[in-house]
Amino acid sequence: MAYALADSDRVRRVAPGARTALAPFYALSGLIALLVLVAAGGGLFIPGLYRDNAYMLPQAQGNDLVTLVFSLPLFVGALVFTARGSLRAQVIWLGSLGYLLYTYITMAFDAVFNSFFLLYVAIFGLCVFTAIGALSHADADALRRHFAGEKTARALAVYCLALAVLLFFTWGGQLVPALLANKVPETLVLAGTPTSFVWVLDLGILIPFLALTGIWLWRRQSRGYLLAGVVLVKGLTLGLAILGMAYFMLRDGQPIDAGILAVALLFVGSALPLLALYLPRIKSEPQTPPVAVAPSSATRPIPRWCFLLPAAMVPLLLLATLGGLLVPGLYHDNDLVVPQNQIQDLFMLVVALPLFMLALVGAARGSLRALLLLLGCLAYFLYSYIHYSFGVRHNQYFLAYVWLLGLSLYSLVVLFVHLDRERLAAGLGAGVPRKPAAVFLLIAGGLVALAWLADVVLSLLAGTAPETVKLAGTPSSVTYVLDLGLLVPACFLAAVWLWQRRLWGYVLVAMLLVTTSLIDLVGVPLSLFLLGVTGPAGIMAVLATVGVALTVWFFIGLGQKRLS
């Protein structure tokens, strides 16, 4: 790995423009590194920080050890050399960022609420925004031109596809028998968690990511060359982390799942030699001339096939919502949580799903309004099924929740990749309520941040978990993690971009207006159920009313433009 980062490798062909575009994400990465140092160091050296049970505690400490002594130094070293222009280091930086994102998603959602909760949420949110920005601005075409060895590329494509299949059958072999028997898997009983975060992340996000990377690399698309290196670095760091967990568990006398240990050994044993094969193939001089490619997504309509992923969500949404309403005993949560789940199911069935289907049909026909409405509905379903996947106790519909999470996420990715930016800019009407929408998002984001932070800080001062966490029976609050880590920063960012008249500001604001309106609309009956007619329910009703009105005004202001 030192070879990959040394100045003598002379692989310094990241274009100056790309380096300038990545500069903000270098700064965010430096902040991430500092926060991770505190979080991992505290996990190892602060007695009593973790409040997890005896089965989970050694796993957390093993993960902290590997993060502190290997993954974090690798991340910082790669960051330094990426900023100097190294393409090899850029791949390692992005791969180690992927590892930190995976790790702190788990810590934010799965670690029992402790005094570092806000730190985990901050790292999670920073990693998400940094990963999105860095991958969007990374020069994959330059990496493709500097890569020598098509046979190596084909071998890596097969590896990614094979790893996706292997993970699918490994986790499926543990999960499907329990689902068929309507039993809780043994690993969940030992962990004392409502669900398995590894299964959610791997089945919903990692396996599709591996499959897409393999397909893109096989088809010699530039993004495949970049993401293949990210997969290898992430696989190595994640495998070492699992081995670190296994060491601490053995030392503590805890049972180790043979399947997970085999996956860890496979990750490390395959990623190391493949990285040794991959990194030297990135040469100091271009190996191929610039490839003539099809027009970018900025100059062509969205292909019709891009709408197949959101279309595949429709039968799953019907299955999940009708099942929640009609299948007796489906939910295994407590008496307070089950009615909340059913209120959410009913709202999605009668409001969100019909709206989603109308937007899907209109977007496929080229309507700008329908496309932005579709993006907002997808963001809402992503938000909702993160809740179901991470917060609802394991039941027979677990796979439906995970697949809906994955389909929502990758539908957004595919649509954004192919978004027709020039036609989108031309289609924005002058009647959009730019300033009112920006002010509303700032106020709504600020109110949510103040409300959740007040609850968290008061609970931390009292040395206990927030009441919402206790009532839900979950390790942490999925709502607090999503809102503080993602939704509130997105509201602030969208408001600033919209005020500056940036194109992405209009897109992000349209999405957030739809998403927050749907969240607030279902939040009113949920607040009434939980709290009765009180101040919070009234505030939620006001936000929902203003949000819906602004959303309608915003979409009317878009005009009647079409994208094709």
What distance lies between the first and last C-alpha atoms, to the nearest angstrom?
Answer: 48 Å
Number of DSSP-assigned strands: 0
What's the total helix number?
21
User: How many domains, in number, for the residues?
Assistant: 2
Q: Strand-and-helix sequence, N→C?
A: HHHHHHHHHHHHHHHHHHHHH
Structural commentary:
There is one protein chain. The chain has 564 residues and is mainly α. It folds into 2 domains: 2-281, no CATH class; 326-557, no CATH class. 76% of the residues lie in helices and 0% in strands.
Structure keywords:
564 residues, mainly alpha, 76% helix, globular, disordered N terminus
Quick structural gist:
By secondary structure, the protein is mainly α.
SSE inventory with pairings:
Blueprint: H1 2-5, H2 16-45, H3 57-83, H4 87-110, H5 117-137, H6 140-146, H7 150-180, H8 186-191, H9 197-218, H10 222-252, H11 258-278, H12 308-326, H13 337-364, H14 368-391, H15 398-417, H16 421-427, H17 434-462, H18 467-472, H19 478-499, H20 503-531, H21 535-557
Helix pairs in contact: 2-3, 2-5, 3-4, 3-10, 4-5, 4-10, 5-19, 6-10, 7-9, 7-10, 7-11, 9-10, 9-15, 10-11, 12-13, 12-15, 13-14, 13-20, 14-15, 14-20, 17-19, 17-20, 17-21, 19-20, 20-21
